[in-house]
Amino acid sequence: MSIVVKSLVKRFDTAERGAFLAVDHLSLAIRPGEVYGMLGPNGAGKTTTLRMLATLLSPDEGDAEIAGVSLRADPLEVRRRLAYVPAEAGLPECLTGREVVRLFARIQGVASPRERADALLEAVGAIRYADRACGELSTGMKRRVVLARALVHDPAVLLLDEPTDGLDVPGRREVLALVRQQAASGKAVVLSSHIMGEVERVVDRIGVISQGRLVAEGTLAEVLATAGATTLDDAFIALTGGE
Questions:
Q1: Helix/strand/coil (H, E, C) string of 128-149?
Q2: Pair 207, 29: CB distance under 8 Å
Q3: Dihedral over Cα of 151, 179, 161, 143: its sign
Q4: Separation CA 172–CA 182 (nearest Å)
Q5: How do beta strands 213-218 and 205-210 pair?
Q6: Which positions ≥6 away from 21 have C-beta within 8 Å?
């Protein structure tokens, strides 16, 4: 397995909500070459889970293995084996897209960083505006640059949080095709999205999270059967209680 999550727990204490469990003993496993769709309402724990897997948050309990490495035992090695694409772009406004991707290629020790960066910018449809400052790019353009940046070191695991946010229909199709291409190359891909049709088209299995817990998992047909529903929208509502 490329990703093995073992009873992960994350607690928060906020002024608005007080103490609460954001992720409640979550366990799952994802194979190489698989696209795993992570579904859940806002606040269900999806992003918190992805941030723990990316070593940006420390779990309060449990552990996970990324490409065979424990995130608790060796978080730096875990970071070398994955890429995390958050919902927000997080790009330096003064650098161009080309400069950003080349910089990350050099940081990751990639051979021929200039050629690698240009090839990825071409693959994600960003080469036309690669020399524009990131601060001048639209949301959709920024998403493409962020994807190229994430893939620059050819990670074994790809964590995607709303990767098509801000893209038009052609852009969404291109990104989803890229996701399938990455899985076909052997990567394990976790895709968190609120667009049900998008999930149906691209994923191999689905995990539905509600209140930090995995409430259903399987192929589309298996999740529909679990929920007693005929559409993914209806299954989502039935499994999450319409949160």
A1: HHCCCEHHHCCHHHHHHHHHHH
A2: no
A3: positive
A4: 15
A5: antiparallel
A6: 9, 10, 11, 211, 212
Please report, for residues 8, 13, 149, 188, 208, the alpha-carbon distance to residue 1 in angstroms, rounded to integers and kept in the order given. 17, 33, 25, 9, 20
Q: How far apart are CA 218 and CA 208, in angstroms?
A: 9
At 38, the amino acid letter reads M
Give how far Cα 86 sits from Cα of 20, 73, 151, 221, Å: 23, 24, 13, 29
pLDDT tens for each residue of 151-191: 999 999 999 998 887 778 887 888 888 899 899 999 999 99
Residue that the structure tokens 């509502």 belong to: 237
Would you say 149 and 143 are in contact if contact means Cβ atoms under 8 Å apart? no
* Pairing of β 188-192 and β 205-210: unpaired
**Neighbouring C-beta atoms of residue 179, cutoff 10 Å:** 23
DSSP letter, residue 167: -
pTM: 0.91
CA 106 to chain centre: 23
Residue from 57, 58, 60, 82 nearest 69 by CA: 82
